[in-house]
Write a structure and sequence with these properties.
It comes from Ilumatobacter coccineus (strain NBRC 103263 / KCTC 29153 / YM16-304). It holds the Pfam family Glyco_trans_1_4. Keywords: Glycosyltransferase, Transferase. The protein has 2 domains: 222 residues, Rossmann fold (3-Layer(aba) Sandwich); 170 residues, Glycogen Phosphorylase B (Rossmann fold). It is α/β, with parallel strands linked by helices and 421 residues long. The chain has 15 helices and 14 strands. α3 links the parallel β5 and β6.
Length: 421
Protein backbone atom coordinates (compact mmCIF):
# COMPACT_ATOMS: atom_id res chain seq x y z
CA UNK A 1 0.00 0.00 0.00
CA UNK A 2 1.15 3.58 -0.55
CA UNK A 3 2.91 5.23 2.37
CA UNK A 4 0.55 6.82 4.89
CA UNK A 5 3.03 8.18 7.41
CA UNK A 6 2.42 11.76 6.34
CA UNK A 7 -0.38 13.40 4.41
CA UNK A 8 0.39 14.97 1.05
CA UNK A 9 0.03 18.75 0.85
CA UNK A 10 -3.60 19.72 0.19
CA UNK A 11 -3.41 21.28 -3.26
CA UNK A 12 -6.99 20.43 -4.24
CA UNK A 13 -8.65 17.23 -5.37
CA UNK A 14 -5.44 15.90 -6.88
CA UNK A 15 -5.12 12.90 -9.20
CA UNK A 16 -8.00 10.49 -9.87
CA UNK A 17 -6.87 6.92 -10.65
CA UNK A 18 -9.24 4.40 -12.25
CA UNK A 19 -7.74 0.90 -12.25
CA UNK A 20 -9.01 -2.68 -12.21
CA UNK A 21 -6.76 -3.85 -9.35
CA UNK A 22 -5.02 -2.27 -6.35
CA UNK A 23 -3.39 -3.57 -3.17
CA UNK A 24 -4.13 -5.91 -1.50
CA UNK A 25 -5.24 -7.48 -4.79
CA UNK A 26 -2.20 -9.39 -6.07
CA UNK A 27 -2.79 -8.94 -9.82
CA UNK A 28 0.36 -7.73 -11.62
CA UNK A 29 -1.40 -4.56 -12.79
CA UNK A 30 -2.50 -3.94 -9.21
CA UNK A 31 1.09 -4.12 -8.01
CA UNK A 32 2.10 -1.69 -10.76
CA UNK A 33 -0.57 0.90 -10.03
CA UNK A 34 -0.14 0.64 -6.26
CA UNK A 35 3.53 1.58 -6.58
CA UNK A 36 2.84 4.36 -9.09
CA UNK A 37 0.41 5.86 -6.57
CA UNK A 38 3.04 5.43 -3.86
CA UNK A 39 5.57 7.35 -5.93
CA UNK A 40 3.08 10.12 -6.78
CA UNK A 41 2.27 10.52 -3.08
CA UNK A 42 6.00 10.76 -2.33
CA UNK A 43 6.12 13.68 -4.78
CA UNK A 44 3.34 15.58 -3.03
CA UNK A 45 0.29 14.57 -5.09
CA UNK A 46 -3.06 13.86 -3.51
CA UNK A 47 -4.51 10.72 -5.07
CA UNK A 48 -8.01 9.22 -5.11
CA UNK A 49 -8.08 5.61 -6.30
CA UNK A 50 -11.20 3.98 -7.74
CA UNK A 51 -10.61 0.25 -8.11
CA UNK A 52 -12.23 -3.15 -7.63
CA UNK A 53 -12.68 -5.27 -4.58
CA UNK A 54 -9.90 -7.90 -4.46
CA UNK A 55 -10.85 -10.73 -6.83
CA UNK A 56 -7.89 -11.64 -9.06
CA UNK A 57 -6.59 -14.79 -7.34
CA UNK A 58 -9.69 -16.99 -7.82
CA UNK A 59 -11.69 -14.77 -10.18
CA UNK A 60 -14.20 -14.09 -7.41
CA UNK A 61 -14.46 -11.60 -4.55
CA UNK A 62 -12.03 -12.65 -1.83
CA UNK A 63 -13.17 -13.64 1.65
CA UNK A 64 -13.56 -10.66 3.94
CA UNK A 65 -14.50 -8.32 1.09
CA UNK A 66 -17.94 -9.64 0.19
CA UNK A 67 -21.31 -8.23 1.23
CA UNK A 68 -21.03 -4.72 -0.19
CA UNK A 69 -21.14 -3.34 -3.72
CA UNK A 70 -18.92 -0.40 -2.74
CA UNK A 71 -16.36 0.08 0.03
CA UNK A 72 -14.68 3.44 0.60
CA UNK A 73 -11.83 4.44 2.89
CA UNK A 74 -10.07 7.75 3.49
CA UNK A 75 -6.28 7.78 3.61
CA UNK A 76 -3.67 10.36 4.65
CA UNK A 77 -3.02 11.00 0.95
CA UNK A 78 -6.55 10.83 -0.48
CA UNK A 79 -8.98 7.93 -0.67
CA UNK A 80 -9.61 4.43 -2.03
CA UNK A 81 -13.02 3.40 -3.36
CA UNK A 82 -13.41 -0.32 -4.08
CA UNK A 83 -16.20 -1.54 -6.35
CA UNK A 84 -17.72 -4.88 -7.27
CA UNK A 85 -15.95 -6.02 -10.49
CA UNK A 86 -18.82 -8.24 -11.68
CA UNK A 87 -16.52 -11.21 -12.40
CA UNK A 88 -17.74 -14.18 -14.40
CA UNK A 89 -16.78 -17.72 -13.54
CA UNK A 90 -16.00 -18.70 -17.14
CA UNK A 91 -13.07 -16.72 -18.55
CA UNK A 92 -13.78 -18.02 -22.06
CA UNK A 93 -17.28 -16.50 -22.05
CA UNK A 94 -16.36 -13.25 -23.80
CA UNK A 95 -19.88 -11.73 -23.90
CA UNK A 96 -20.19 -12.26 -20.15
CA UNK A 97 -16.74 -10.77 -19.53
CA UNK A 98 -17.50 -7.79 -21.77
CA UNK A 99 -20.73 -7.14 -19.88
CA UNK A 100 -18.81 -7.25 -16.61
CA UNK A 101 -16.22 -4.78 -17.92
CA UNK A 102 -18.94 -2.38 -19.05
CA UNK A 103 -20.82 -2.60 -15.74
CA UNK A 104 -17.64 -2.10 -13.74
CA UNK A 105 -16.50 0.81 -15.93
CA UNK A 106 -19.86 2.55 -15.53
CA UNK A 107 -19.74 2.17 -11.74
CA UNK A 108 -16.12 3.37 -11.74
CA UNK A 109 -17.15 6.44 -13.73
CA UNK A 110 -19.80 7.34 -11.17
CA UNK A 111 -17.36 7.07 -8.29
CA UNK A 112 -14.64 8.78 -10.29
CA UNK A 113 -16.91 11.83 -10.38
CA UNK A 114 -17.44 11.56 -6.63
CA UNK A 115 -13.85 10.94 -5.50
CA UNK A 116 -12.45 13.94 -3.60
CA UNK A 117 -15.75 15.81 -3.92
CA UNK A 118 -18.43 15.66 -6.62
CA UNK A 119 -17.30 17.21 -9.92
CA UNK A 120 -14.49 19.23 -8.31
CA UNK A 121 -11.65 19.98 -10.71
CA UNK A 122 -8.91 17.34 -10.67
CA UNK A 123 -5.24 17.65 -11.56
CA UNK A 124 -5.43 14.64 -13.86
CA UNK A 125 -7.32 11.38 -14.42
CA UNK A 126 -5.25 8.21 -14.93
CA UNK A 127 -7.17 5.26 -16.38
CA UNK A 128 -5.63 1.80 -16.83
CA UNK A 129 -6.33 -0.77 -19.55
CA UNK A 130 -7.33 -3.56 -19.63
CA UNK A 131 -10.24 -3.26 -19.53
CA UNK A 132 -10.32 -1.04 -22.60
CA UNK A 133 -13.66 0.42 -21.50
CA UNK A 134 -11.93 2.32 -18.70
CA UNK A 135 -10.39 4.57 -21.37
CA UNK A 136 -13.79 6.01 -22.26
CA UNK A 137 -14.70 6.20 -18.58
CA UNK A 138 -11.50 8.06 -17.78
CA UNK A 139 -12.06 10.55 -20.60
CA UNK A 140 -15.64 11.25 -19.47
CA UNK A 141 -14.61 11.71 -15.82
CA UNK A 142 -11.76 14.01 -16.87
CA UNK A 143 -14.00 16.19 -19.03
CA UNK A 144 -16.64 16.53 -16.33
CA UNK A 145 -13.92 17.39 -13.82
CA UNK A 146 -12.24 19.87 -16.21
CA UNK A 147 -9.05 17.83 -16.33
CA UNK A 148 -6.78 15.82 -18.63
CA UNK A 149 -6.62 12.06 -19.19
CA UNK A 150 -3.64 9.72 -19.09
CA UNK A 151 -4.57 6.32 -20.54
CA UNK A 152 -2.16 3.69 -19.18
CA UNK A 153 -1.93 0.67 -21.51
CA UNK A 154 -0.68 -2.56 -19.94
CA UNK A 155 -1.74 -4.83 -22.82
CA UNK A 156 -2.82 -3.74 -26.28
CA UNK A 157 -6.34 -5.05 -26.79
CA UNK A 158 -7.78 -6.58 -28.93
CA UNK A 159 -4.52 -7.49 -30.73
CA UNK A 160 -3.43 -10.17 -28.26
CA UNK A 161 -6.89 -11.73 -28.14
CA UNK A 162 -7.02 -11.86 -31.94
CA UNK A 163 -3.54 -13.37 -32.23
CA UNK A 164 -4.37 -16.16 -29.76
CA UNK A 165 -7.74 -16.87 -31.34
CA UNK A 166 -9.65 -15.84 -28.23
CA UNK A 167 -11.72 -13.53 -30.46
CA UNK A 168 -12.68 -14.71 -33.94
CA UNK A 169 -16.02 -13.03 -34.59
CA UNK A 170 -15.45 -10.28 -37.17
CA UNK A 171 -18.17 -8.06 -35.76
CA UNK A 172 -16.69 -8.28 -32.26
CA UNK A 173 -13.19 -7.63 -33.60
CA UNK A 174 -14.38 -4.59 -35.55
CA UNK A 175 -16.20 -3.15 -32.55
CA UNK A 176 -13.20 -3.73 -30.27
CA UNK A 177 -10.80 -2.08 -32.72
CA UNK A 178 -13.10 0.92 -33.07
CA UNK A 179 -13.30 1.27 -29.27
CA UNK A 180 -9.52 0.96 -29.07
CA UNK A 181 -8.84 3.75 -31.60
CA UNK A 182 -11.50 5.95 -30.03
CA UNK A 183 -9.97 5.50 -26.56
CA UNK A 184 -6.51 6.45 -27.81
CA UNK A 185 -7.72 9.52 -29.68
CA UNK A 186 -9.72 10.84 -26.73
CA UNK A 187 -6.84 10.59 -24.24
CA UNK A 188 -4.58 13.60 -23.75
CA UNK A 189 -1.69 11.17 -23.20
CA UNK A 190 -1.32 7.43 -23.78
CA UNK A 191 1.43 5.64 -21.84
CA UNK A 192 2.78 2.30 -23.06
CA UNK A 193 5.45 -0.02 -21.72
CA UNK A 194 7.86 -0.21 -24.63
CA UNK A 195 8.89 1.21 -27.97
CA UNK A 196 7.16 -1.76 -29.63
CA UNK A 197 3.83 -0.89 -28.07
CA UNK A 198 4.33 2.78 -28.91
CA UNK A 199 4.77 1.88 -32.58
CA UNK A 200 1.69 -0.33 -32.38
CA UNK A 201 -0.48 2.41 -30.90
CA UNK A 202 0.83 5.16 -33.18
CA UNK A 203 0.08 2.94 -36.17
CA UNK A 204 -3.60 3.14 -35.25
CA UNK A 205 -3.65 6.93 -34.92
CA UNK A 206 -3.44 9.86 -37.29
CA UNK A 207 -0.09 11.66 -37.34
CA UNK A 208 -1.44 14.54 -35.26
CA UNK A 209 -2.01 12.16 -32.32
CA UNK A 210 1.45 10.54 -32.36
CA UNK A 211 2.92 13.01 -29.88
CA UNK A 212 0.38 11.93 -27.25
CA UNK A 213 2.00 8.47 -26.99
CA UNK A 214 4.67 8.17 -24.27
CA UNK A 215 6.87 5.22 -23.29
CA UNK A 216 6.98 4.71 -19.51
CA UNK A 217 8.05 1.17 -18.59
CA UNK A 218 6.73 -0.79 -15.68
CA UNK A 219 9.22 -0.91 -12.84
CA UNK A 220 10.62 -3.53 -10.55
CA UNK A 221 11.22 -2.99 -6.84
CA UNK A 222 14.95 -3.59 -6.81
CA UNK A 223 15.10 -3.13 -3.05
CA UNK A 224 12.47 -5.77 -2.30
CA UNK A 225 13.70 -8.18 -4.99
CA UNK A 226 17.35 -9.10 -4.66
CA UNK A 227 19.46 -12.10 -5.67
CA UNK A 228 18.87 -14.89 -3.16
CA UNK A 229 20.09 -18.37 -2.23
CA UNK A 230 18.68 -21.00 -4.58
CA UNK A 231 18.02 -23.38 -1.66
CA UNK A 232 14.74 -21.69 -0.75
CA UNK A 233 12.05 -22.97 1.61
CA UNK A 234 9.70 -22.98 -1.39
CA UNK A 235 11.95 -25.41 -3.25
CA UNK A 236 11.83 -27.75 -0.25
CA UNK A 237 8.09 -27.20 0.19
CA UNK A 238 7.41 -28.38 -3.38
CA UNK A 239 9.95 -31.21 -3.22
CA UNK A 240 11.95 -29.94 -6.18
CA UNK A 241 15.28 -31.39 -5.02
CA UNK A 242 18.76 -29.88 -5.24
CA UNK A 243 19.22 -30.07 -9.01
CA UNK A 244 18.68 -27.31 -11.57
CA UNK A 245 15.17 -25.82 -11.75
CA UNK A 246 13.71 -24.10 -14.82
CA UNK A 247 10.84 -21.88 -13.75
CA UNK A 248 7.90 -20.20 -15.43
CA UNK A 249 5.97 -17.92 -13.09
CA UNK A 250 2.85 -15.96 -14.03
CA UNK A 251 -0.45 -16.32 -15.82
CA UNK A 252 -0.97 -19.78 -17.28
CA UNK A 253 -2.96 -18.63 -20.29
CA UNK A 254 -3.16 -19.12 -24.02
CA UNK A 255 -0.88 -16.19 -24.88
CA UNK A 256 2.05 -18.06 -23.36
CA UNK A 257 3.70 -20.88 -25.32
CA UNK A 258 3.86 -23.15 -22.32
CA UNK A 259 3.79 -26.20 -24.56
CA UNK A 260 7.48 -25.34 -25.05
CA UNK A 261 8.05 -25.96 -21.35
CA UNK A 262 6.42 -29.39 -21.67
CA UNK A 263 8.61 -30.18 -24.69
CA UNK A 264 11.73 -29.10 -22.78
CA UNK A 265 10.76 -31.20 -19.76
CA UNK A 266 10.36 -34.20 -22.07
CA UNK A 267 13.78 -33.57 -23.66
CA UNK A 268 15.64 -32.80 -20.40
CA UNK A 269 14.68 -35.43 -17.81
CA UNK A 270 17.67 -34.45 -15.63
CA UNK A 271 16.22 -30.96 -15.07
CA UNK A 272 13.21 -30.05 -12.91
CA UNK A 273 10.58 -27.76 -14.46
CA UNK A 274 8.08 -25.69 -12.46
CA UNK A 275 5.06 -23.85 -13.86
CA UNK A 276 3.97 -21.56 -11.04
CA UNK A 277 0.65 -19.77 -11.47
CA UNK A 278 -2.95 -20.22 -12.51
CA UNK A 279 -5.01 -19.49 -15.59
CA UNK A 280 -7.29 -20.80 -18.29
CA UNK A 281 -4.68 -23.12 -19.85
CA UNK A 282 -3.44 -24.78 -16.67
CA UNK A 283 -5.82 -27.76 -16.61
CA UNK A 284 -5.03 -28.77 -20.19
CA UNK A 285 -1.28 -28.35 -19.61
CA UNK A 286 -1.37 -30.49 -16.48
CA UNK A 287 -3.21 -33.19 -18.39
CA UNK A 288 -0.73 -33.04 -21.28
CA UNK A 289 2.26 -33.26 -18.95
CA UNK A 290 0.89 -35.76 -16.45
CA UNK A 291 3.39 -38.41 -17.58
CA UNK A 292 6.43 -36.23 -16.81
CA UNK A 293 7.93 -36.83 -13.36
CA UNK A 294 10.18 -33.75 -13.67
CA UNK A 295 7.31 -31.33 -14.37
CA UNK A 296 5.58 -29.63 -11.43
CA UNK A 297 2.68 -27.19 -11.15
CA UNK A 298 1.90 -24.83 -8.28
CA UNK A 299 -0.60 -22.03 -7.76
CA UNK A 300 0.13 -18.37 -7.18
CA UNK A 301 2.44 -17.71 -4.26
CA UNK A 302 1.77 -14.97 -1.72
CA UNK A 303 3.08 -11.58 -2.83
CA UNK A 304 5.53 -11.33 0.07
CA UNK A 305 7.20 -14.56 -1.12
CA UNK A 306 7.90 -13.32 -4.66
CA UNK A 307 11.61 -12.95 -4.00
CA UNK A 308 11.70 -16.52 -2.68
CA UNK A 309 9.90 -17.80 -5.78
CA UNK A 310 12.31 -16.01 -8.11
CA UNK A 311 15.32 -17.36 -6.24
CA UNK A 312 13.95 -20.90 -6.54
CA UNK A 313 14.50 -20.95 -10.28
CA UNK A 314 18.04 -21.35 -11.63
CA UNK A 315 16.83 -20.29 -15.09
CA UNK A 316 13.56 -18.52 -15.85
CA UNK A 317 11.62 -18.75 -19.10
CA UNK A 318 9.44 -16.15 -20.82
CA UNK A 319 7.59 -17.89 -23.67
CA UNK A 320 5.12 -15.86 -25.73
CA UNK A 321 3.28 -16.98 -28.85
CA UNK A 322 4.37 -15.66 -32.24
CA UNK A 323 2.92 -12.27 -33.10
CA UNK A 324 2.44 -11.16 -29.49
CA UNK A 325 5.87 -9.67 -28.83
CA UNK A 326 4.80 -6.24 -30.02
CA UNK A 327 1.44 -6.18 -28.29
CA UNK A 328 2.32 -7.57 -24.87
CA UNK A 329 5.38 -6.91 -22.70
CA UNK A 330 5.99 -9.66 -20.11
CA UNK A 331 6.83 -7.32 -17.23
CA UNK A 332 7.84 -10.36 -15.16
CA UNK A 333 11.15 -10.15 -17.04
CA UNK A 334 12.13 -7.11 -14.96
CA UNK A 335 11.53 -9.03 -11.72
CA UNK A 336 13.51 -12.05 -12.91
CA UNK A 337 16.45 -9.82 -13.80
CA UNK A 338 16.22 -7.99 -10.47
CA UNK A 339 16.53 -11.38 -8.76
CA UNK A 340 19.79 -11.99 -10.61
CA UNK A 341 18.50 -14.96 -12.57
CA UNK A 342 19.14 -15.56 -16.28
CA UNK A 343 16.26 -15.51 -18.78
CA UNK A 344 15.54 -17.67 -21.79
CA UNK A 345 12.81 -15.98 -23.81
CA UNK A 346 10.91 -17.43 -26.75
CA UNK A 347 9.48 -14.31 -28.31
CA UNK A 348 9.31 -12.31 -31.53
CA UNK A 349 12.78 -11.00 -32.51
CA UNK A 350 13.65 -7.30 -32.30
CA UNK A 351 10.92 -6.65 -29.75
CA UNK A 352 11.32 -5.18 -26.27
CA UNK A 353 12.37 -8.29 -24.34
CA UNK A 354 15.07 -9.51 -26.79
CA UNK A 355 16.45 -5.97 -27.04
CA UNK A 356 16.52 -5.67 -23.25
CA UNK A 357 18.25 -9.03 -22.86
CA UNK A 358 20.84 -8.11 -25.46
CA UNK A 359 21.55 -4.72 -23.90
CA UNK A 360 21.89 -6.15 -20.41
CA UNK A 361 23.40 -9.53 -21.19
CA UNK A 362 20.68 -10.88 -18.92
CA UNK A 363 19.83 -13.88 -21.03
CA UNK A 364 19.07 -15.11 -24.52
CA UNK A 365 16.06 -14.91 -26.83
CA UNK A 366 15.04 -17.48 -29.42
CA UNK A 367 12.25 -17.39 -32.01
CA UNK A 368 8.74 -18.00 -30.66
CA UNK A 369 7.14 -21.45 -30.87
CA UNK A 370 10.48 -23.04 -31.88
CA UNK A 371 10.89 -25.96 -29.49
CA UNK A 372 14.31 -27.05 -30.78
CA UNK A 373 15.86 -23.59 -30.32
CA UNK A 374 14.20 -23.17 -26.94
CA UNK A 375 15.49 -26.50 -25.67
CA UNK A 376 18.99 -25.84 -27.00
CA UNK A 377 19.15 -22.43 -25.29
CA UNK A 378 17.97 -23.91 -22.00
CA UNK A 379 20.46 -26.77 -22.23
CA UNK A 380 23.33 -24.36 -22.85
CA UNK A 381 22.31 -22.12 -19.93
CA UNK A 382 21.94 -25.06 -17.55
CA UNK A 383 25.25 -26.62 -18.58
CA UNK A 384 27.34 -23.42 -18.32
CA UNK A 385 27.01 -22.23 -14.74
CA UNK A 386 29.46 -19.35 -15.18
CA UNK A 387 27.53 -17.98 -18.16
CA UNK A 388 24.27 -18.28 -16.23
CA UNK A 389 25.66 -16.41 -13.23
CA UNK A 390 27.14 -13.71 -15.47
CA UNK A 391 23.80 -13.27 -17.24
CA UNK A 392 21.99 -12.99 -13.92
CA UNK A 393 24.41 -10.34 -12.65
CA UNK A 394 24.18 -8.35 -15.89
CA UNK A 395 20.41 -8.37 -15.81
CA UNK A 396 20.38 -7.18 -12.21
CA UNK A 397 22.71 -4.26 -12.95
CA UNK A 398 20.61 -3.19 -15.95
CA UNK A 399 17.32 -3.20 -14.06
CA UNK A 400 18.76 -1.22 -11.15
CA UNK A 401 19.91 1.46 -13.59
CA UNK A 402 16.87 1.60 -15.87
CA UNK A 403 13.64 0.45 -14.22
CA UNK A 404 13.46 1.69 -10.63
CA UNK A 405 10.14 2.80 -9.08
CA UNK A 406 11.56 6.28 -8.47
CA UNK A 407 12.37 6.77 -12.15
CA UNK A 408 8.93 5.62 -13.26
CA UNK A 409 7.20 7.74 -10.62
CA UNK A 410 9.11 10.81 -11.74
CA UNK A 411 8.06 10.22 -15.36
CA UNK A 412 4.37 10.12 -14.38
CA UNK A 413 4.65 13.13 -12.10
CA UNK A 414 6.35 15.13 -14.86
CA UNK A 415 3.66 14.13 -17.36
CA UNK A 416 0.87 15.15 -14.97
CA UNK A 417 2.45 18.56 -14.41
CA UNK A 418 2.90 19.05 -18.16
CA UNK A 419 -0.77 18.29 -18.82
CA UNK A 420 -1.88 20.72 -16.10
CA UNK A 421 -0.26 23.68 -17.86
Amino acid sequence: MPHTSAAAPDTGVGVIVLCPHFAPDNAPTGTVMTRIVDELVERGHRVHVVTSLPWYRNHEIEAGWTGKLVRREDTAWGSITRLHPFPGGDKSNLPRRAAGFVAYSALAGLHGLRAGGWFRRADCVIAMSPPLTLGITGWLVARLRRSSTIFNIQDVFPDAAIETGAITNRTVIGAAKMLERWSYRLADAVTVLSIDLADNVRGKLADRHHASVHVIPNFVDTEAIQPGDRATPYRAELGLGDGPVVLYGGNVGFSQSLDLVLAAAEAMPDVTFLINGDGAARASLEAAGSHLDNLHFAGYIEAHRLGELLATGDVHVVPLKAGLGRVSVPSKTYSIMAAGRPVVAAIDPDTAVPVMLEESGGGVAVPPDDAASFIAALRAMIDDGDAARSAGAGGRDWVVANASPAAVGEMYSTLIERLRR
